[in-house]
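ESCALATION

Customer reports they have been waiting on this structure for their group meeting. Please prioritize. Original submission:
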Amino acid sequence: MLPGADAFRLRAGNFNLLVLRLLDGRPEVVLPALGDQFRRAPGFLRFAPIAISLDDLAVAPAEMDFPALVAGLRGLEIMPIGVVGGSPAMRQMAAAAGLSTLRPAGGETGGPGIGAETEATPAPMPEAPPVSVPDFRGTGRTAMLVTQPVRSGSRIYAEGADLIVTATVNPGAEVIADGNIHVYGALRGRALAGANQNPEARVFALNFDPELIAIAGFYAVREGLTDAPIGRAVQVRLDGEALRFEKL
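Update from on-call: job pushed to the front of the queue and completed.
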């Protein structure tokens, strides 16, 4: 067995995302093992969105180096989008590194999907902390403006603010905001609004064709959006625990 080969597990999650189930929280152990795995399977997970499971880690939060882990995964062309499980302290540290807390969709047996009413009904994690809605008024910063196309592999985070993009968000790109996300162009990458657990956040796009869409951790991937108005002007909002997609 190769050194570090037992440092991680990959499994298919019930929300159509792969889950990186960490058994060892040290980036210097996990990253070389992942790199060796992918060298034996070229192209595996290249630019794929992935969730990181913290449930099997028995380390103190201070021992987790989330920035190094995120940077290393991106160096392997893996796109970590958030974490599941773990302690509140771990999730808080992950959020500081730009990783949202994700809530798997569809319960134990189903995946995310859009029904006849074009809604996705993810199931929240029972251990998730109470929702806190940030107030952006009076902070001196209400929006981040991006006027250039967001290229594949790029990631933009509007911390404590809305994000306004007046160009295309390309496939493989990721836009994140604690508030709303406005895309006055084509949204073809991943958009995560309300990243600081703000359920009132919304996503607006003139051309809606995302790889992944999320609000306050509730999300659906492209395969589950078959009945959504793809290619149209759309707003996405959270209704309870359901994502709703409405034409503009």
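Sent to customer with the following note: The longest helix spans residues 27-39.
Escalation resolved.
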